[in-house]
Design goal:
Layout (H helix, E strand, L loop, with lengths): L12 H12 L1 H6 L4 E3 L8 H15 L3 E3 L13 H13 L4 E5 L4 E5 L13 H9 L1 H11 L9 H4 L6 E5 L13 H8 L3 H11 L5 E5 L3 H9 L3 E3 L20 H16 L5 H8 L1 H6 L16 E4 L20 E6 L2 E5 L2 E2 L13 H4 L1
Parallel strand pairs: 1-2, 2-3, 3-7
Antiparallel strand pairs: 4-6, 5-6, 8-9, 9-10, 10-11
């Protein structure tokens, strides 16, 4: 996997591709069944250049590429998803095996520090804190947070400012009282500018805070969710309604991604048939990573099975109350053993690490 975190201008792409050649080792990656999953370089203003980079890497390596949580981010890019999907389809007609995954929500999630200009983060946490404490550097950063940029993905401005950025997870227990609040609200609580509030929380939490960001529109999400080439992923770690994994907030996608696909886009909006949604949740997702013994009900396959009621399955996790298990799922089997029976979680823990097709070739 190559996962660029910030956009490089087009003139730097050839250098990036040369580096990627070294990292992928094109012949070895293909020989061992390698796949290329990417958090593409830009999901916003430079998304089309970013797509071209993904296509070039996949073509050079001769392996499949899957774009993680495909989106067209920030208001000025809303409405571009049909063109993005068209370009992916055009690349496939040229023989490039490229596809994507999405989560079915209009808000994303990221570290709070991604709201700051990239120069603030250089050289590690201690340097970042020093800069945020320096009045001149803080003022410069706040000015840049309110301006469009061609050199970094301005998450703060793209979310509409403090009202579009919600704090969901912190490590410092003194900050828990702010979880679930956006930075307009936090700023009022602190009697500070929302940007100052964000910077002060980043200092107090040593850059470990997580936020939910309002960056997409529903029409683009619907277009991606319904496309035959697009599978799904929550892009969130597992949490729980109780115990140690319930001490912070979350993005509701951690609890509701797959039930939401069925409830919203199959049952309510009729953007695709149930069979198509199930295919994309199961066999399509497995095949993209080269795992061929899962994702289909067939003799000889691993028994990963979810039994649900199509009339009642529903995500209930919200941005305000995210730690909520979905309803309508009756039984779940993992490797043939029941982890959910009659909608109750059991004590079974049969999960295992899954190996790609190249594992046996190198062991």
């Amino acid at each position: 996997m190559i996962s660029p975190l910030s956009f490089r201008p087009p003139e730097k792409v050839e250098t990036t591709l040369a580096l990627t050649d070294l990292l992928l080792d094109r012949r070895s990656a293909r020989r061992y069944g390698g796949v290329y999953f990417t958090h593409q370089r830009s999901e916003a203003d430079q998304i089309f250049q970013s797509l071209d980079e993904v296509f070039a890497i996949a073509q050079r390596a001769g392996i499949s590429a899957t774009i993680w949580h495909l989106k067209t981010a920030y208001r000025e890019n809303w409405g571009k998803m049909p063109e993005v999907l068209s370009r992916i389809e055009d690349a496939r007609t040229r023989g490039i095996d490229v596809a994507a995954s999405v989560y079915p929500y209009t808000r994303g999630s990221n570290g709070l520090v991604a709201c700051f200009p990239s120069w603030i983060l250089e050289d590690g946490t201690d340097k970042m804190i020093q800069r945020l404490k320096d009045p001149a550097q803080r003022a410069r950063a706040q000015k840049e947070m309110d301006e469009p940029s061609a050199t970094w993905q301005n998450q703060w401005r793209g979310s509409g400012g403090g009202q579009g950025v919600t704090l969901i997870q912190v490590l410092n227990p003194e900050l828990h009282k702010f979880e679930g609040m956006n930075f307009e609200e936090i700023g009022r609580q602190m009697s500070k500018d929302p940007r100052d509030a964000a910077m002060d929380i980043a200092i107090a939490d040593r850059g470990q805070s997580e936020v939910v960001i309002a960056i997409m529109q529903e029409a683009d999400v619907r277009a991606a969710v319904s496309n035959p080439l697009v599978s799904y992923g929550s892009d969130s770690p597992a949490q729980a309604e109780d115990g140690l994994l319930s001490t912070t907030k979350a993005h509701p996608r951690a609890f509701g991604t797959f039930p939401r696909i069925v409830a919203e886009y199959v049952r309510a909006e009729h953007t695709m048939r149930m069979e198509e949604a199930v295919r994309k949740i199961t066999s399509l997702a497995a095949s993209r990573v080269g795992i061929m013994d899962r994702g289909i009900l067939r003799p000889g396959m691993m028994a990963d099975i979810a039994i649900f009621d199509p009339a009642t399955i529903q995500d209930v996790a919200t941005y305000q109350d995210p730690l909520r298990y979905s309803v309508g799922v009756k039984d779940v089997f993992v490797n043939g053993r029941p982890v959910v029976l009659d909608s109750k979680i059991t004590e079974e823990r049969p999960g295992r690490a899954l190996r790609g097709p190249g594992y046996k070739l190198v062991h």
